[in-house]
Each structure stands twice: as structure tokens, then as C-alpha cells.
Predict the 3D structure of the following.
Amino acid sequence: MNILHLSAQKPDSTGSGVYLRETVAALARAGHNQAVIAGIAPEDDPQLAPGVLFRPVRFQTTELPFPVVGMSDVMPYTATRYRDLTPEMTEQFKVSFEQAIDDVLDRFTPDLIICHHLYLVCSVLTHLVHERKQSDSALAACTVCGLSHSTDIRQMRQIPLERDFIRAGIKMLDRVYALHEAQAREIEEVYGIDSARIRVVGTGYDAGEFFVRPGLRKPGTAKLVFVGKVCYKKGVGALLSALDDLTVRIPNVELTLVGGYSDKQEHDMLVQYAREHSLPVTFAGKLPHDDLVRAYNEADVFVLPSFYEGLPLVIVEALACGCKVVCTALPGIRPWIEANVDGNAVTFVEPPRMHDVDTPVDEDLPAFEARLCDALEHALTSPPAACDTTRASWDALAARLL
């Protein structure tokens, strides 16, 4: 098949970027011809699978004079928030991606198009393809799909940007992919998509890289690792508070926070809290791939206390590396893990109430932090548990997509 992938974001950063890159690699291994359109910064040089046609849409240029847009309001790189787009910026965005899509379709006739995020660029795509199909018989047979990563739903709920245009474009999709069943119901509600057109595909991980490396996990230690954006909405503040109590119960516990940040003031506050409370925390920042695999393998427990997620692949990576996992019981995650990972060692923590989709009610935080502390103690004192993550590999995901 000829498969075209589209994203307004960088194709190798954040969870959705990694999802796109690894899906492309898996489909390349299966022998499919592919093209990718994605938004990047002037200095970026994404590394995709060999033979993939890459058409960048470069931001911070004369045509697009602002940083790459981000589906989250807090991105691990310099980004423009969708809520800050002016009408002029929105038009520049649309024109730049229309030109890129036209350019690729003039050189590459896809059988399948997969657009990441059910948001602005997806609607630009569907409107353009719908128009071109009227006069292009080869393109007329193309199936156009959109894949939600949850942050798109959050944007639709929180800000009014181009809602009618976006919703109309999403309704033109032939198929919509959801990460889990709870998200599928949200898609049906937010976009008005018939449930018969929605398929649950889940996420994936690199089975060739993320696996147990013997000898790295030391007996007698109590090591925790977090991987993600180091910010309050990922639950890092709550995690540090829980660790304050956990160190009383388990004196030799250590926490490594792996990941970047975009709000320096917020990050400095987290660092200051850890220092003031003399917490055994290492702020490791972003790690190279090999060091990330090592961090998983050295840890006893992986913790992800987020207040909002789609279906985080870091959970599967951690399980594949032999970690026990503690994470927030967010909608859809538990059923998908239980259905696709045999013998999983995951402890789920009930989240606090939310003001909106990702802002916790302050008065609920102490109880959440107490539950998190209890869950971490339980995980650290429980015996190791083997998991079979075969059904969660990128190759298995690619097969489900097709």
C-alpha cells in the first residue's frame, strides 16, 4: 500500500510524535510505501524509516512566523498554543499545510491516509482531499483516517478555535482510530461520529529495545522512575509530596525524574520543593534512548501520576523492562492494559476530582497524595511480576491499524 501520515507536530517528540515515527517504521518493515507530512522547527531534522518521503512544514519562517503548534499547552519544546492563534496565524497554518498536502498528493497517490490528532490539520486535510477526489480518480479510492491522542479532545472541550470547521472536517473521515474504549465514547460525543466508524487500536512499544536487561536492577534498593514532562499536570508535584511521606516508611527509596519541561518557573518550584524537603530525587532531564532503557531497567517501580493522558506508551515500555507500575486510574487505561498485557503488574490510583479535564481540585490533592504513597509502598514491597507485552508491540499495532 501507499500510506500517507500527517501531523501538525514534530514527528519524533512527545508521545504522539513517537507514535507516528514508530508506526511508520513498523509499516515500513511490513513492506508498505510511505510519505509523512509534519510540522517542524527550522533546525529540526527528523529521522524516519529509510525510503519514506518526508515533506516538512517549517514553522518560524516568513510563511509561518511562529513556533510549531502544540496539542498540549505545555510542550517539551518551544511551541505555540492553539489558544493563542490569531485569525491571521490560523490562516497561515491552513495555507502552509494545504500547500504541503497538495505537493505530496501531486507526487504520491495514497491508498490510505492516517492523520494524527482529530484537530485543525485533520480538518484541513479532509476538506482538501474531499475536493480533490471530485477530479482525481486515483485519489477517489483512498481511505482517510484520523487517530486521536486525547489532547485533541481536550482542546475541543477547552477552547473555541475553529470548532465548526474542525467538527465538519472530522465527520468526513472514513474511519477514526481511538486509543481505548473510553476515548472512543468521547470521540462519539465531542465530534458526533457514529460509533460504527470508530475502531480501538491502542498504542505500541519498541520490543527490540525495551526488554529486561539482567543485572541492572540491584537487590535491596527501592528505586522509582518517572518518564514524561516534568510538570504539575503530569502529577509531579503530587509525586514529590507523596515521596515526602514514603521516605519515612521506606528510608532507602530514590526517585529519578526523566523528561524535559517548558515552564522554567514551574520546574524551578519543583526542584526547590525537593531541596527544601531533602528528597532523594534526581532531575535527569531528557535522556538518550539507551540511557532511558537503562533507567527503566534500574528501577523497581515506574510511576505516572498524571491528571490527564491518552494511552501512555511509557507504561508498556516500563512493563516490558520488568518494572512494576503505579499510575493514575484515568479513563480507558486500565481496561486496555488488562486486555493487552498478560500478567501486568500495575497498581492503579484513583485520581482527584477535576475542575476541567486536567486541573485537580486542590482540596482533593492531600487524599490523592496519600493514596499514591500507599500504592508506591505496596509496589515497592511486592515481589516482581513477569508480563507478556507481545500484543502491545509496534508491529502488532500496525497490524491492527491496517
